[in-house]
Amino acid sequence: MNFDSYFEIGYSHTICEDYALSGRINDDLVFAIVADGCSASADVDVGARLLAYSARQVLLQLYRNENDAAALQVSVEDLSRDLAYRIATQADCLRKQLLLPVDVLDSTLLIAIGDNKGCARFLCYGDGVAIHKNINGDVFYCNFEYPCGAPYYLSYLLDPAKDKGYREKFGRIDDDVVMRGDYLTKADNRTPFEQKFGAKGVNLYAHTSAEFLDTEWIVLMSDGATSYQQRIHSEDKPSQLESRDLKESLTELVGFKNFNGEFIKRKMNRLKKDHEKAEIIHYDDMSVAGIVLAK
Predict the structure, then answer these.
(1) Which of 4, 25, 34, 98 could form a disulfide with 110 if both were Cys (CB 3.0 to 4.6 A apart)?
(2) Helix or strand or coil: residue 63?
(3) Are strands 107-115 and 29-37 parallel, antiparallel or unpaired?
(4) In terms of residue numbers, what domain contains 31?
């Protein structure tokens, strides 16, 4: 098993408000975490880190005991609900020690946990992208979006006024969450899909949660992965930035040559050089974290 993570400032930002972590829980479990702070709130670059490290701390506390059968066997739906409260509470303790307002924790959070048997659990609190490859070689992605433009942050669990305001403005927490996905590899009889989570959607505090078997690897990305643009030059009009095809960008991002050492940092640093030559930028901050369970 292996793990790695990377984050980088976006073209439109002066401070990187994304963060990413990955690591080992014990001999059998590894994790990946991505956090994306809300640009409309102050000091969320700090908050994204606090949330990510709080998530890591909660995972270590929950799974450190390898004989804790209850923690390993709980359903992914119950796990997502339990972790939401635990992580929010842990992060709240840290920000209070630093005398920071609760808004500093306005950040999305994606988590993947995987074991040495190829089982991966994915939890998404907000928006972002998850890409999964199974041992048969199939690679597919899911992109979670909010058409309203306002994800529900775990920090709202700590602030009744903001929680109430969000519900009054947008309805249920999981209203209007859209998951779009497709295969990045050729797959017979499989077409792009879209799912909207409304009144009968996913559980209250995790906009989606899933368990994958026979996993080779899973990579998480902030929504910066959807913000890639390329400068196009034309003889009859000024050059301009145009959005890149999402599947093209994602395929490029996970085109790993091998999974030795810091495989994500190596790929992202290589792409940075290639993109500079091709005049490709990511407009938003970018964070990536992944775990490899089988090769």
Answers:
(1) 34
(2) helix
(3) antiparallel
(4) 2-227+286-292
E-only strand ranges, 39-171: 107-115, 120-125, 128-134, 139-145
- Residue 253 domain flag: no
Domain assignment present for 280: no
DSSP assignment of 276-293: HHHTEEESS-EEEEEEE-
User: What is the four-CA torsion angle of 246, 252, 255, 260, rounded to 10 degrees?
Assistant: -110
Rounded distance between C-alpha atoms, residue 176 and residue 197, angstroms: 6
Does residue 38 lie within any of the structural domains?
yes
Tokens found for residue 248: 């093209």
Q: What is the DSSP letter of 187?
A: -
- Inside any domain, residue 82: yes
CATH of the domain at 111: 3.60.40
Q: What is the pLDDT along the chain (295 residues), one digit of tens a residue?
A: 999 999 999 999 999 999 999 999 988 899 999 999 999 999 999 999 999 999 999 999 988 765 555 566 788 888 888 899 999 999 999 999 999 999 999 999 999 999 999 999 999 998 999 999 999 999 999 998 887 788 889 999 999 998 888 888 876 655 567 778 888 987 666 777 777 654 333 344 445 778 888 999 999 999 999 999 999 988 888 888 999 999 999 999 999 999 999 999 999 999 999 999 999 999 999 999 999 998 6
What is the count of structural domains for the chain? 1
Query: With the C-alpha atoms ordered 178, 205, 108, 167, is the resulting torsion angle positive or negative?
Result: positive
Strand order in the sheet with 2-8: 2-8, 286-292, 215-221, 128-134, 139-145, 177-183, 193-197
Residue 293 near residue 21, CB atoms below 8 Å: no
